[in-house]
Structures are given as structure tokens and as C-alpha cells.
Amino acid sequence: MRDDPHVVTLVVQARKGEQAAWDAIVERYSPLLWSICLRYRLSRADALDAAQTVWLRLVEHLDELRDPAALPGWIAMVAQRECLRQSRSARRRQSAEQVLDGDLKDEARAVEEEVERAERDLALRAALSHLPERCRRLLACFLGDSPLSYPQISERLGMPIGGIGPTRARCLARLRSSPHLSGFTGQG
């Protein structure tokens, strides 16, 4: 292959700008180039990019090729380097897409949870607003960072300690049966 006079002639003619010589070089060495791309298992798009880059490099460096008969080896070497670069680039893209995809899914899930929480809170406020005043006041004593104790509730609401638990249970049952909460309690 190294002493193939036809290759030398093609290189000399291509250096002179003869289109037929360029066409013959591409036709002759495309199978070599594609076989290298196949070994790297590049996607079709990445293999096309690699092949185009090899041909572009040949156009840019053909005049610098000291031994025209070495063209097949030069094409193979440049193809291997370009396929390796494309392969690494594809892995980085895939990795970044997976990270980005995971981030987007996490972000979407967080937004969805926040929307659901806001809808639930709005429905809960609406349901609470439709309870009798006594229930609203009693349930408010249990909400917040530091809920009140039964003796504190008894004093604040003027309610016997023994009646707080049962009244609270009735108020919670009314709250759960509110049509405002039907989408959240499974009742409707």
C-alpha cells in the first residue's frame, strides 16, 4: 500500500486542485474511514461529523504530507483521533443530559409538590372558614409551633377539660367531610 503509485498520483493531482483526484481519494478511502468510525460505535451523526472533519483536515494539510504514499495511514490516524474525540464528546453530552434530565425531573417534582401543598393549604383554609366559630377557635389552639395544653385551652375557651377531646374529634370529623377537602381526603 505504501508504494502504490496510483495514490501518489492522486495526491499530486489533488494538490494541484484537480476535482477528479479529490473525488477518487474520497471514493477510495471512505470505506477505511467508515470502518474506523464503526469500531468506535459512534452514532450516525457523530460518525458523519468525524468523517467530515477528517476530509477537512486532509484539505487543510494535504500540502504538508511529506510522503504522498502515506495517505492511507494519515487518514487512518486522523480518523482514529477524531472518532475518539467524538466518542468522548458524546459520552460527556450523554452524561450532562442525564444530569440535566435528572435535575429537571427533580425540579419538576419539587414544583409539583409545592403546587399540591399550596392547593391543599388553600382548600384547608376554605374548609376551616366554613366550620362553626367554636370549632375554628378550638382547632386553632392545636395549630402552630407550640400547641396549647388542655388546661390552657380550657381556660382560654371556657370549656371543661373533659370536653376538649370529644369536641375536637367532632370538629375534625366535620372538617374531613368538608366538600372543600374532597379532592384531598378521598371523599366526595
Description:
- It contains eight helices and no strands.
- The chain is mostly helical and 188 residues long.
- It has two domains: 5-97, Rna Polymerase Sigma Factor, Chain: A; 130-185.
- α5 (133-142) crosses α7 (161-176).
- The model has no long low-confidence stretch (mean pLDDT 85).
- The CATH superfamily of the largest domain bears the name RNA polymerase sigma factor, region 2, helix turn helix motif
Number of strands: 0
Assign a percent range to the helix content: over 70%
CATH architecture of the largest domain: Orthogonal Bundle
Mean pLDDT: 85
For the largest beta-sheet, the strand count, sense and barrel status come to: none
Into which percentage range does the β-strand content fall? under 5%
Q: Quickly give the structural class.
A: mainly alpha
| Unreliable stretches | none
- Characterize the overall form: rod-shaped
Radius of gyration, in Å, reads: 38 Å
Q: Which topology of the largest domain does CATH recognise?
A: Rna Polymerase Sigma Factor, Chain: A
- Determine the N-to-C terminus distance: 83 Å
The total count of helices amounts to 8
What is the succession of H and E elements? HHHHHHHH
Please identify the top-level CATH class of the largest domain.
Answer: Mainly Alpha
How many separate domains? Answer: 2
